[in-house]
Amino acid sequence: MAATGKSYLRKIDISDVEPGMVLEDVFNDEGVLLISSQVEVTSPGQIEVLKKRGVSAVYINIRDGVDVPIEKLKKQELLKREEEYYLELSRAKEVHQSTLEATKNTLHAVRTGRPFTAGEIEIAGEKIVSSILRNPDALLSLAQIKGYDEYTYVHSVNVGILLTSVAKAMQYNKNALLEVGIGGLLHDIGKMRIPEHILNKAGKYTEDEFNVMKRHPQLGIDILRYSRTITDVSRLIVYEHHERFNGKGYPRGITGSQISEAGVMAAVADVYDAMTTDRVYRPAWTPQRALATIFQGCDVEFPRRIVEFFTRHLGIYPVGSFVRLGTGELGVVVRVEKGKILAPDILVLYSPDGIRYSEPREYKLAELQTESNRKKYSIESSLNPKDFNVKISDYIQKSPFD
Ligand SMILES: [Fe+2]
Ligand SMILES: [Fe+2]
Known about the structure:
Blueprint: E1 7-13, E2 22-27, E3 33-35, E4 39-40, H1 44-52, E5 57-63, E6 66-67, H2 75-111, H3 119-134, H4 138-143, H5 152-169, H6 174-186, H7 196-199, H8 207-213, H9 216-224, H10 232-240, H11 261-275, H12 287-296, H13 304-314, E7 322-325, E8 330-335, E9 345-350, E10 356-364, H14 365-368, E11 379-383, H15 393-396
Bound molecules: fe (ii) ion (2 copies).
């Protein structure tokens, strides 16, 4: 029979799930997203865990009438991927650092009244694209490590990386990747024309102050007006990243398909990075809470199709998540293998009794999980690292290949 390649998602009752099936989006009954990427059910125990977490139904992907199996990789291939990731990670650190510098310089120049020049940002955009084309995960990991400072330039770099990386997953070509990357780096450039006492205000904005803040997309494209190299797609990111699907955004309040795809992608990346960063008025949310909240805004604030690319791409426990394992130990997610998003590599920091290990222990959950101890070596929940005095950035950059 000829394959049509047609696929669709089918909702099935949790009691009909069998080992071997590949699950797509899984929500619990409160609408919280538990799994947002393909995951293969390998044991009846996993189905029990989902039931306990309040899951009554799941979606499976049906293609040509059958369940789509995920890529099965040989051990050799997995090792190669791991090595490539860590190889790129050390290069990605340099890309990250130089992008932070370039973005800081460019924004600072505009802040001090100099005309905008695109050169440094364009070079940074090219470096981001090259890194992501060599390995899609390394630079993204670095963008997920949040410090305690919330500067516009750090946020801009995170959004630039996030956008390029999701656009890669959406099959954008090299040129288009560069356009969204540059747009991301520049998306808040208009803030450089907002008075600093408003921009850096710790408390809530008054209505007047918020009205001033809302001018930053327009101020942004004004700043870029005389540039001959910044493309329309990059400009749309600057202009539209606060528009919303339901028309409740700004500056124009346009709706649905009036907003460009790049504009929508930038809006999601912007919100995700803002939610997962510490603010003066609230601590950072875990990536899980941020993704679940964004998901709940599907077809209200953001179109579902784009949100799905983000949640699939970032996975449920992205690198940098701080988690509790079934063993009771606590650790940091340091690497996520595609297709094994529920069983990432963890650096374990705390014993089940809450005692900090003198040396972190490396757990590869996918390897440790066997039929009988799967639950023990699974992630139980995600936690806020600050409650445990853990600085995520101390652990992400460590590579066994260094
Ligand atoms: Fe903005
Ligand atoms: Fe922003």
